[in-house]
Structure formats: structure tokens, C-alpha cells
Amino acid sequence: MKIFKVGDTQLAVCEACRSIKSMTFALRDVPFSDGSGIVKNVLVGVCDTCDYVIVTPQQSAPAIKRELDKQRKPLEARVPAHMVDILNLASAELGATPDFSKVLIKYYVHTLSLNEKKALHLEKYLQNDLAKGPSQKRISLKGIQVYDDLNILKERSRMESTTDVLKAVVINIYEDFFDKPKKGVIETLRGLASASF
Questions:
Q1: Which of 13, 34, 141, 162 holds its CA 20 to 30 A away from the CA of 75?
Q2: In which domain of life is the source organism classified (predicted)?
């Protein structure tokens, strides 16, 4: 890997100028493309013509990752052990490993947060026998999107507890996969699982 220094120059394609331009490496504050934050004082290649950031060298990746990790807000809940088993079984049904269970939860939280009617019915799952039992296992999620989606879902479902929302989501997953299988949902998630592994 080549290490660049402030002031180094080279040619690169500038998207703003739509041509090959000379660029100079400099320290800049660079915003994330989704507007969720900014990485301060990171080495980037800047177009000498229009001042557009053209290149982020590999050596800047750890600084960017560190800033992204700061923005990922953790969500944690303690749940009965059989709920983790449900997630693992659903992942296996999709041909995925148990690690896919986090994607599965994020998918459901996001989808339910967009549907006010389904969100309102989420609390009914807490009456299910599967919602009971000692909370011996932990579900831990990280991400900006899931954090925002969960807050919307809590508001729309009128449930204040993150743990209750996640329990209800797991039971919803159980219903969609094993109790009253929804082929369309399962096929969509199977496609997502195959693209992830």
C-alpha cells in the first residue's frame, strides 16, 4: 500500500469536472454522503480545479471507520433463550448462518416502522406464550438506521420498552416463518440472505 503525504499530487478522475484532473492530498473535514456526520481532519485527494474531494486513500480508512463506529448506537435487550433459537431457525430456513439473525431483526424493525397499522398491532405479540420466560440471552444490534427505526416503531406501537418491542418482533418473525408462513416475506428475505453470504 502506498502511503500519501499532505502535498503529494497525482492525476485522477474528478466527478465534478467530469475529466481527468490534477489533485493534491490535503487534510479536510469530510461529511458522510448521507449527512449523518463528518470526519474531521482526514487525508483526502482534492481536485486542483474545483476543490472537490476525489479520492480517499486507504490509509484514511481507520479514521473514517472510527468515526462511523462512534455514530452506531447500540441497542440491547435481554430475552428468553428460545427467542434467540427462533431467530437462528429462521436464519437457517433462509439458508443463512445464525449471524443473519441481526439482519433479520433490522429488516423487520425497518419494515414495521414504515407501517403504522402493523406497528399498532405489535403489542398483541406480548400476550403470546412465547413472550414469557426468564431473560437469559442478549440481543445486541448496532447501526444508525436500526436505532432510528426502533424509535419510530416504539412511538407508532405505543410501546416504551426496547425489550418489549424486540420480543414482539421476534414473535412476529416466528409467526411469519413457522406459525402462518408468509411465502412472499420468506422469499424476499431468502434473496437478501443469498446476497449477504
A1: 34
A2: Bacteria
